[in-house]
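Sample pair:
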Amino acid sequence: MNEGLFWALHRAIVLGIALVISLGLVVPYWKIFKKAGFAPALSLLMIVPLANIVMPFFLAFSEWPALKKSA
């Protein structure tokens, strides 16, 4: 097998796995942020290192706009 082809396939596989893992983080948080009343695009921060540690705490300890509307 050509060495250049090997590395191209390797890169494609690694990027594909990274995409699946990223979607696995973003999609659930998209729904959570939307149901909580926040902008769903905040879920994109789950891809950013350190922000993915802070965002669950933000969700846990902030006032949810969706709860304010229903009360």
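The chain has one domain: 3-70.
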